[in-house]
């Protein structure tokens, strides 16, 4: 690990990195669009909507039934099973830990083959159960309240494999737009962060910096945290650039199974370390208006779920899945020339080129500008 001071290019002017801009766009993040005339199932209360726009987040409790989320839990178990098979077939592990359940098995794989949690993160393809969750009618009713009548799924989604005590899945403060391209800075991308168990302070629930979106600004991030590929936002910078009051505005948000957290692409957030004995599985799904740029380096587009102009009977999943964004990142931004080792746990992506690299590790070393 090494640290670089900010380089100077000419005279006293510090070098600007592509992610750094001066413009601010507060209005799209604090202004509620005209609300749907109809009352629809699942819609946020006025208080929740107001909190979402005023404070940059809201927690929705008791939204999904266990029956609605069980297919996602089953898909995760299946993904872990597939990974165990792959590792076993390749001789990387000698046992598959089949007797362990959803909240333990990946930890056992991780002990037997460190980096298993990264492999699962890296290789995920969206199962049908997650597609259904993403276009759940009640969730889309909420998205209409936040985004207006045009609602599309944003191409960035993640199943979080937060195994206990793992630095690889310890996510520091950031605004999501720090991962996206600058075209994402001027419009709302709404995220639902949905846990697959009770998310608690002990197992690594989320924290948000309330009001951090109000300036409409993406603050200066750095790359990359500890041994990871994650961008990071210092508390000092949150204070200085986003007016976050560190004493008052940092909120820890435990969420019961069936609930979720809503925030936006410039709400500063992080998750706590998982000190429990269970894996804190969660998914983050995103939506925006299809009229805006996807902010995704032209790698892939979103998928239309609702439109005022036409009825969408079935989202065009075929088109959406014709682009495997994680595979494209790896090919386009990875300096390695040979065929990718399927058990390689390096992750690179376009965000690494957007910020000053103050901490070098194998992920930053592997990065090449696309
Ligand atoms: O799930 C986590 O640990 C972090 C999630 C996150 O940073 C996000 O959804 O943007």
TrEMBL record:
Coiled-coil intervals, chain numbering: none
Protein's UniProt name: Phytanoyl-CoA dioxygenase domain-containing protein 1-like protein
Organism annotation: Magallana gigas (Pacific oyster)
Record-linked Pfam families: PhyH
Cofactor: Fe cation
Residue segments, region Disordered: 1-43
Domain of life: Eukaryota
SUPFAM superfamilies per the UniProt record, alphabetical: Clavaminate synthase-like
